[in-house]
Design a protein that fits this description.
- By secondary structure, the chain is mainly α.
- The protein has one domain.
- Helix content is about 90%, strand content about 0%.
- The protein contains eight helices and no strands.
- It has helices at about 1-15, 20-60, 65-115, 120-145, 155-175, 185-195, 195-220, 225-255.
- Helix 1 packs across helix 8 (about 225-255), helix 3 packs antiparallel against helix 4 and helix 3 (about 65-115) packs across helix 8.
- The N and C termini lie close together (about 10 Å).
Length: about 260
Amino acid sequence: MKFLKRGFKETLEAVKQNKLQVIGLFLLQIFFIILLIYVTMIYSVKIINGIQQVIEPVQQVNYGDDQQDIFNQLYPIYESYAQLKGNLLGFAGWLAGLFLVFQGLLWTLSHKVIGARKLGKILVKYLVTTSLGILLFVLLAYSVLSSITIDNLKMPLIVLGIVSLLMYFLFINFLAFLNTDNWKGYFRRVLSNLKKIQYSLLVFAINIILLGMFTYLIYLGRNYFLLGSLSTAILVVLLVLSRIFWISCLNEKNNH
């Protein structure tokens, strides 16, 4: 696994040579996380309340009543159901917007830390790739969320979560090669990398395990200020470094 060693070495050298840029990435990452948590908290409350407003009244409907009484009981439930779907789509829209803006800056600057110079071309490739990815995700998400029924709320959300993870993995494979001179070379390098996807999976697994470990430590340290603060700080550092490590490793493997 020489490409991992080369990628790790390149990451360390890039950080040493571009300390101010890396600090800027840390600050940008923190701001992104704060906004993400804020939006998630707001919509989580709305979505949980929406689920309760659908499930609890359904269990109390008396289907032995006449049609008019049943309709009067079900109508508010369907209103709550429509509001729930609206909140889910609104949450997805906010996530897409934040993702488009902040991830664009984070990935572009990460490439710059490694040595990229033509940031305009990188940003254009990011915007085109991400816009197409978001469009595909929205279509899939709408299809999945449209399958939600009063009796089946949980499964579509699980399916959407799995689809989101798979799409994200494929997506970051594209982002590793944004620093390519032209579109033809860009797609050729991405396709070449996907043929050796086991290496991407290995790097992805390393990053996920490390990030997962410190996320779990944050959970364990939620009642201990020092442990929680230290774990959070390390997690932010890892989020920035893992992105640089990802780019370095995949480019190293693609170039050898």
